Request: fold
Amino acid sequence: MTEAIRLDRVTLWRRTQEEFSYDLKRTILNLLEGQYHQPIRKQILHEVSLTIAQGERLGLIGANGAGKSTLLKVICGILSPTSGTLRVRGSITPLIELGVGFDPENSVLNNIIYYGVFLGFKRREMQVRAAEILDFAELQDYAWVPLKGLSSGMKARLGFAIATQVEPEILILDEVMAVGDENFRRKSQKRLEEFWQRRHTTILTVSHNLDSIRDTCQQVIWLDRGKVRFVGDSKEAITQYLDESRHQFDQTNHATDRPSD
Amino acid sequence: MVSRTLLESFSTESGRYVELVHVLAERALVARYRGSILGVYWSVLSPVMMSVIYTGIFGTAFLQYYNNSYWHYALAVFTGMVTFNFFSGATSQALTSVVHNGGLLNKVKLPMSVFPVAIIVANCFQLVVGTLPLLAILTLWQTQNPLLVLALLLPLLAMVGVCLGMGLLVSGLYVFFRDLPYFYEIMVAVLSIATPLFYPPEIIPPRFGVILSLNPLAVIIQVVRGIVLEGVVAWDLMGTALMAGGLLLLLGLVMFQSWRSHYMDLL
Reply:
């Protein structure tokens, strides 16, 4: 069994949201008044350790703000851990929705090429593969249409087609599978299945759709406020997670019910 | 396996950087000149009109500094304007580039400096297609010496260094200070007066002469004017200009990299 991803006591501190938009004017005035202060930091991930084997399908679950997307960003190398180590073997392809960083006025074909280059492929390579991508996304007639002319479902199909056409070694799916019509969903499930069986692609999924996680992942990691609560069999993890959230829901409901009694 | 060769063939980081800059510069140009490449020549229209107006208003007053020739004065204004506009346009567009691509940076790992660099490259393309041929024609017209057209590339190289350095600096600072465009606009306006664009540098009182020697744009413009108008290459100024370009580029790179660890928390 080869390791694809290994995290060893990864801890991440980030600046807090309140510090997000300060301006030059205020900073200079504060400095003049002698009230400069260090930016406030918050711990987002607490000593997360995990090992993902090559060819594994792993689900990531947890409440909003538990740090799921942040953990994915650390794995992708977008954020570097404050402490701890990260080892990744193989190329990572995140499946991102077409929207951010794309030019809605530009043609679908050009956007495919740009997207591919962002993911780390050559322009020429993408020009060759563009036809297959359009084919899979069933958008052959749309190559020269501006991207804004596509419906959101079409864009989702295109995003999936590109990210999987480049044959990733590690594929990251962050809440994106819920789009597209039934036909396309089946088609994309089939393609993922194929990747996983033939190429031993490691697939990491973040989703709130627990049923699909249970169906597609063998292992699940449950993140709770930046800490790993549970790693292991997906059924077990989901059962525990559901119990916990039901419990919390009951508690908060009691808490809010009481004053009205 | 196809994927292996595909990935291995593209494992070099520098190759990836060049591809990214290429694609981003192309994207910026396509967005700007949608439909018509002739749009590049609009960027020449404004300095031509400004030169005509300045010649009408100040031409007579400054005539003695320009061999008593309105044509020389107009040429001096034009060369100054196009060089300065390149600087102000390229750096102002670079300023917002990192923040504008924050969404993308949160999804894919990319070397962040590609964004300002690609904007400067797109502006260089515009310069080479739009302004440079005009400057070359003017140089040939004035001096009948094709070698001087080549010499013209050196001050422009210095200019690219200045713009890259400044672009990296302001795009990095904009991540922290979102009101920076406002201040930068003021700075560019001040700089446009502190640079002898429409007046002869000779009229500046000696005690303010330091403004000229500390302003890399003034030095670069003086070199360009020497070549286009007089057919003389001022090698000492050229050295200063290239050095200033190199230093600013270095400063920009060092600062951009040193702030880099904070960017992702603020985008």
